[in-house]
Design brief:
This protein is of the alpha+beta class. The protein has 2 domains: 34 residues, no CATH class; 145 residues, Nucleoside Triphosphate Pyrophosphohydrolase (Alpha-Beta Complex), CATH 3.90.79.10. The chain is 17% helix and 38% strand. β8 and β9 form a beta hairpin. α2 packs across α3.
């Protein structure tokens, strides 16, 4: 066992050799890939996983520390989930900040003046390469112009502003289950308990999981 007490833990990029690969399914936004991977002991295994473009999410807080949240139907889990604004990185190399600003506008018709990186995560690394960057957005105001026209599940969304502390209690009580909402509000609580939101990374901080031009 390695003693890590002298240095903070950090994940490390590593790639075991892929000896064969195929894509048995290609969807509209994502696909499924099967890789044959050579293990360090020389053995070989097959791993199936979702290939995902990546996503962004926004914990948007107003002057009363209320978060902008959206209730949306999610068919795979057969639930209406309360979520924070989020969306796919539809364009390869897309600037994640610009994508987050777009999603906040489209889903909540809100803009923000202060943006910081709250956390970067892999949502389900055992079965998908999806990477998500969650932003903290503050100094909110109503967006200008017409509201974005919504379709499908988005047409049935409900919008609310809820104290972020209430959301954290809902996560811990098992009432709220959305990944980005849970990570966002708990990370924000950790930031408040630590050096404060001002110490968070800048909104344009590098993101090796989904590189983008400076």
């Amino acid at each position: 066992m390695t003693d890590q007490s002298s240095a903070p833990l950090a994940d490390s990029p590593t790639q075991w050799p892929v000896t064969a690969t195929e894509t048995p399914f290609t969807g509209n936004k994502t696909s499924v890939r099967t890789d044959e991977v050579r293990l360090p002991d020389g053995g070989r295994v097959h791993r199936d996983y979702q290939v995902h473009p990546g996503s962004v999410a926004v914990l948007a807080l107003d002057e009363r520390d209320r978060a902008v949240v959206i209730e949306q139907y999610r068919h795979p889990v057969r639930h209406r989930l309360w979520e924070i604004p989020a969306g796919l990185l539809d364009v390869p190399g897309e600037n994640p900040l610009h994508a987050a600003q777009r999603e906040l506008y489209e889903e909540a018709h809100v803009k923000a003046e202060d943006w910081r990186v709250l956390t970067d995560v892999y949502t389900t690394p055992g079965g998908s390469d999806e990477a998500v960057r969650i932003f903290l957005a503050r100094q909110l105001s109503e967006a200008e112009g017409e509201r974005y026209e919504v379709h499908a599940e988005e047409a049935d969304m409900r919008l609310a502003r809820v104290p972020v502390a209430d959301l954290a209690r809902g996560v811990l009580a098992g009432r709220l289950h959305n990944t980005c909402l849970a990570l966002g509000v708990l990370a924000y609580g950790a930031a408040l308990a630590g050096e404060g939101p001002e110490a968070l990374r800048p909104a344009d901080a590098p993101w090796p999981a989904r590189p983008f031009p400076a």
